[in-house]
Amino acid sequence: MKKYRIGLIGLGGMSHSHIRWMAEEGRFAIIAVSDVNEAALTEKGDLLGISPDKRYGDFVQLINDPDVDAVVSVTPNNVHADIVRACLQAGKPYLAEKPFTRVFEEAARLLELYEQQPVNGMVGYSYRYTPAFRYARELVREGKLGKVRSFAIQYLQDWGAVPNQTPYIWRFNKDITGTGTLGDLGSHMIDMARFLFGEFKELSAQMRTLVPERPDPATGQMVKIEVDDFVSFQARMSGDEVGIFQSSRNAIGSGNQHEVSIYGDGGTLHASTLNPDQIVWIREEAPGQLARSVINVPERCRVTQYGDFLSLLDGTASESLPGFMDGYRNQEIIDAVIRASEEKRTIVI
């Protein structure tokens, strides 16, 4: 089977995981790298055995390299739109990190270009590949829960909590990120709701900055934080399911806690990253008699993100693969959450 030659953009901490995931699939060869940091280019270039002429300071040159079959982008938010735009212009397939863009206006401009010249692309909503979430989707779609009435999704982390003394980093810089917790963690919650239930119809929201200042590690001076580190919203989905969403970087004890609870006429389903290989199903076996089952996820639900990227490149992509329009719709909902919070009203999508 064909082995794809990959150009990797962004050589920071997250690139280690992407390099490992590509290696595990066995059909990717990283042949070019790009980063604005020359030291990172040298270090990763040497580690991966990349020839000097395939180490690019300018990602556009990498994207336009005829030897590169597809692009993997692992960068901060402020260059997401420019990288996707360059891939569309070059006709180069890509896997780009979330959030899709920094702000919705960037996504709207990309849509205009995409409609003129569509290119196969994938957005890194990685939790679509958590086995428990995939099995939950299967059970919902097969009607095993009956009519779904409501749901709750939360994504909690603790690295920003006050006792951790987290300094000011790029994730707190609005010019780079656009939003804080909303774009970083909330984009996964939004994608999970769309993955499970379909499109958003309306929502209301609250965004807060719980820790207003953080120390600059270079100067020691306190820097004002202009992005959210807590967000909550409630929404109505296309099937009239109603859901509540919560995300925070300040939840002590929640290292990486992304979970969903689904409430249907046929029972309640819980799925979580804390137990990715099992789901909990609570249902009524007889009038007034509840049964709680812990169910192992079947093997068919064990699909990897890079396995799906291979299917995209092979021309056999599944309907569950998060493509360009999933990224665009996600950014549209992020924008609606921001407006709902700022204007203190319900936004109809």
Produce the secondary structure layout.
Blueprint: E1 4-9, H1 13-25, E2 28-34, H2 38-48, E3 55-56, H3 59-63, E4 70-73, H4 80-90, E5 94-96, H5 104-116, E6 121-123, H6 131-141, E7 148-156, H7 174-177, H8 181-197, E8 200-208, E9 213-215, E10 222-224, E11 230-237, E12 242-248, E13 257-264, E14 267-272, E15 278-286, E16 289-296, H9 305-314, H10 324-343, E17 347-348
Helix pairs in contact: 4-5, 5-10, 6-8, 8-10
Which terms summarize this structure?
349 residues, 10 helices, 9-stranded mixed beta sheet, 6-stranded parallel beta sheet, 33% helix, alpha/beta
In short, what is this structure?
The protein has ten helices and 17 strands. With 349 residues, it is of the alpha/beta class. Strand 14 and strand 15 (278-286) form a beta hairpin.
Output the helix-strand order. Answer: EHEHEHEHEHEHEHHEEEEEEEEEHHE
How many DSSP H or I helices?
10
Strand order of the largest sheet: 16-15-14-13-7-12-11-8-17
| Spatial gap, N to C terminus | 43 Å
Strand count, sense and closure of the main sheet? 9 strands, mixed
Structural commentary:
With about 350 residues, the chain is α/β, with parallel strands linked by helices. Helix content is about 35%, strand content about 30%. The chain has helices spanning about 15-25, 40-50, 60-65, 80-90, 105-115, 130-140, 175, 180-195, 305-315, 325-345; strands at about 5-10, 30-35, 55, 70-75, 95, 120-125, 150-155, 200-210, 215, 220-225, 230-235, 240-250, 255-265, 265-270, 280-285, 290-295, 345-349. The strands form 3 sheets. A 9-stranded mixed sheet has the order 16-15-14-13-7-12-11-8-17. Helix 5 (about 105-115) runs antiparallel to helix 10. The longest helix is centred in the last third of the chain and has 20 residues, at about 325-345. It starts with a strand and ends with a strand. The relative contact order is 0.15. The model has no long low-confidence stretch (mean pLDDT about 95).
